[in-house]
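Table S2 (continued). Query chain:
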Amino acid sequence: MGGFRFCAETNLDEVPPNPAQPLPRAAQVVKKSLVLFVGSLGLNAILLGWFVARRAEVPAATGDKIVPGSTVMAAADPTNPVRREIAGSAGPADKVAANTTTLWASLDSADLPTLIARLRAAGFPANLIREIVSGRIDAHFATRMKEIAAKPSDRPYWKTERLNPFGPQNYEAMSQLYRERARMLREALADPFFVDAPLGGAELERRRQFGSLPKDKADAVQRIADDYAEMTTKINAAMGGIRLPEDKEQLALLEREKRADLAAVLTPQELEDYEMRTSPVTSRLRTALTLMDATEEEFRAIYAMQRAQTDSRESLSFSGPVSGANWQEVQRLAAEQAKALKAALGEARYADYERSSDREFQQLNQIAQRENVSREATLQAYNLRETTTRESNRIFDDATLTTEQKRAALQALAQNTKTQMRNTLGQAAGDAYIQSAGWVKALENGQAVSFSAGGGTRMRSLPVAKNVNP
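Corresponding output:
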């Protein structure tokens, strides 16, 4: 799972990565969460403006949460002068502000269940209540998170902590706060009232994680995930960024136990779907699947292949030193799986998948998106790679050319390729792509370049001319 971020589109149940991959810019994250919390106070004022302007009456069954005759009840009555003043239809602005403050005071409570009950009784919709409650919970944890992130250090300014800027203890403390916050929010919004309400960003992300699981099962799965995440965090923190064989065995054991616990709660199909949604394999595939605009059927086929290859590599890594025979077996299985995937997707879509999986193509798309370059031009520029590198090998193997003639021809090929890239992508995008494409630099250095199906690069260099002493 990725690091927790306080924002509307955050998976509230995420926990930080392991210490080998420290929380990115943790201090900035905490700072941003504080800023967003201040913003949530402004949001509360907007929500109040919405509430006092709405003409729906407050439900009668409010219990003792709202006192009859109070400002809240008056605001719900369109004929009441207080309602007209609050709504802005009568009275000066300062009086309207004062009445709005009075209204919020009658709704507000430091006790979350009480606050939620009052807001529901006053007619607030579920998605707006979620935002208010989320802001309150953010505030509850903000000070403690800031204290952890701002721990003083006695190290010199020219040095930094290795691998994990928090240190194992602070990392574990921050991870615990993330989980506490997620649990508090789940418990506060556990009422079925919030289940069928319009989904906000966080709820949409949660739906992406759990799919169509019933709420009781989703909660059980989340509790299991939280428990194992806590144990995993402790192991990762103790490693200090150095993973020994015994650490790998411990982590593998936790994964097996976690899967067994999940299997006791979910049906085989539900477990498969949940693992597919939360797997690191899926995270790695998302960029390629987005670029190729994969369908769900294509995603499932690609995921199955990648998962099988990952399992093969992990099995190899746990079997001790990698031997040539074992590695060849993994490569053989990968080739067979790729062949099966090619048959399932078809030639054209498999080519789209391979291209979209290439890091250079992904980087080129980022450049093209930034510079507003069309997809057609992007593909045309990328396809230069194949034609150019094929020509580089033709030059390299040409027996009629001397070494210096080959070098000159390869350098001329590089210059021509750069010109075509700039003409196709534009000056800015072309220069950025040239800078990122290492194979262009190889051509300039007099090397022939070729690419393997797995994304590897092969470069053949011409012999260096020997100096002849007079």
